Amino acid sequence: MAKEELIQFEGLVTEILPDARYRVQLDAGHEIVAYTAGKMKKNRIKTLAGDRVTIEMSPYGRSAWCTAAWSVPAQVSAGSPRF
Predict the structure, then answer these.
(1) Structural domains of the chain in order of their starting residue, each with its CATH number
(2) Can you tell me the distance from the alpha carbon of 50 to that of 29, in angstroms, rounded to the nearest whole number?
(3) Which of 9, 23, 13 is nearest to 51 (CA)?
(4) Is 5's pLDDT higher than 70?
(5) Distance between the two ends of the chain, CA-based, in angstroms?
(6) pTM of the model as a whole
(7) Across-strand partners of 7?
(8) Which residue, among 4, 70, 2, has the nearest Cα to 34 in the 3D structure?
(9) At residue 18, what are phi and psi to the nearest 5 degrees?
């Protein structure tokens, strides 16, 4: 059985929730709760309110939204630490 392509959405983190979850406002206008992907957890990438993220979703259902990628905000340079 072939793996299905994941649907990707762009959005803005509006609120940090417990257990590595985030409230995200999608560019399409919808607001969802997403969780941090495994590689982001493994590499301890911090996500803050105001960050742009890419959300991936399985085509089989809308119950699990995964934050797949994090975009560097304009005010933070790529080399500076985020603590």
Answers:
(1) 7-71 (2.40.50.140)
(2) 15
(3) 13
(4) yes
(5) 42
(6) 0.68
(7) 57
(8) 70
(9) -65, 160
Question: What secondary structure does DSSP assign to 30-80, as a single string?
Answer: -EEEEEE-HHHHHTT----TT-EEEEEE-TT-SS-EEEEEEEPPTTS-TTS
Are 22 and 67 within 8 A, CB to CB? yes
> Could you read off the pLDDT of 30-81 as tens digits, one per residue?
888 888 887 777 888 888 899 898 888 777 766 556 555 666 554 444 455 5
Residues contacting 57, CB < 8 A, separation 6+: 6, 7, 8, 9, 64, 65, 66
Among candidate residues 22, 24, 39, the one with its CA nearest the CA of residue 10: 24
Burial of 8 (0-12, 13-18, 19+ CB in 10 A): exposed
Single-letter amino acid code for the residue at 50:
G
Cβ-Cβ contacts under 8 Å for 36 (sequence gap 6 or more): 20, 21, 22, 45, 47, 66, 67
